[in-house]
Structures are given as C-alpha cells and as structure tokens.
C-alpha cells in the first residue's frame, strides 16, 4: 500500500468514526445557529437603514442616533461572536480534535 493510499484510508476511517461525527455535531450545533442569528441581526440593520429611516434617525445623545448605535453594535457583536466561538472551540471542539489527532499519530505506518 502506498503512502497516499494509506493516508486516504486513515482519513476515511477517521471521518467515519463516532468521535469525528461528534466533533462535527458540536461544530455545527454552534456555528449554524450563530451564523443564522448574526445574518438576521445584520439584515435587520440593513432593512431598518433602508425602510425605517425615521426610527434610525432618532437622536439618543447629541448627534448620536439609533442608526449609529446599531451600526457600532454590529462591530461589537462580531467581536463577541469571535470570542464566544473561541471559548466554544476550546471547551468542546479542541479536546475531541486533539484526541482524534493523537489517535491518528499513534497508528503504525
């Protein structure tokens, strides 16, 4: 068996393993809902900017209006999502990925 065939065989075995499927479930259970929520939040901002100009123009403090606050919150939410994903990966994904990696590295050639 060539090295390339061996590598493909290992990858296929890992991909079919229960631990890898669990890793994918943990990844998808967090990223898909978070992506949908962020896209909804972003599209809400775009829709409000286009069709609720009076609302977005409400002055909150001096020249700071609702639109500016919501726009800045887009940046805040982006950084929060990155931080939250990092925490999620550290707690849920990294331990399983490390376990799979150590299992693969320990296999005989």
Describe the strand arrangement of the main beta sheet, using strand numbers. 1-2
Tell me the Rg in angstroms. 22 Å
What spatial form do the alpha-carbon principal axes imply? elongated
Question: N-to-C terminal Cα separation, in Å?
Answer: 10 Å
> What share of residues are in beta strands?
under 5%
Written description of the protein model:
By secondary structure, the protein is mainly α. Helices cover 84% and strands 5% of the residues. The chain has helices at residues 3-16, 18-51, 53-56, 66-105, and strands spanning 59-61, 64-65. A two-stranded antiparallel ribbon has the order 1-2. A hairpin with a 2-residue loop joins β1 (59-61) and β2 (64-65). α2 runs antiparallel to α4 (66-105). The protein is elongated and about 70 Å long. Keywords: Membrane, Transmembrane, Transmembrane helix. InterPro entries: DUF485. This is Membrane protein. Pfam families: DUF485 (PF04341).
Map the helices and strands:
Layout: H1 3-16, H2 18-51, H3 53-56, E1 59-61, E2 64-65, H4 66-105
Antiparallel strand pairs: 1-2
Question: TL;DR of this structure?
Answer:
The chain is mainly α. It has one domain.
Provide the descriptors you would attach to this structure in a database record.
single chain; 109 residues; mainly alpha; two-stranded antiparallel ribbon; 5% strand
């Amino acid at each position: 068996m060539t090295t390339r065939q061996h590598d493909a065989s290992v990858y296929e075995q890992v991909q079919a393993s229960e631990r890898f499927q669990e890793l994918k479930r943990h990844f998808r259970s967090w990223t898909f809902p978070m992506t949908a929520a962020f896209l909804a939040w972003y599209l809400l901002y775009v829709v409000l900017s286009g069709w609720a100009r009076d609302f977005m123009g409400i002055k909150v403090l001096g020249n700071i209006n609702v639109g500016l606050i919501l726009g800045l919150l887009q940046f805040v939410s982006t950084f929060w999502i990155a931080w939250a994903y990092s925490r999620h990966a550290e707690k849920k994904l990294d331990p399983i990925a490390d376990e799979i990696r150590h299992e693969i590295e320990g296999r005989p050639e």
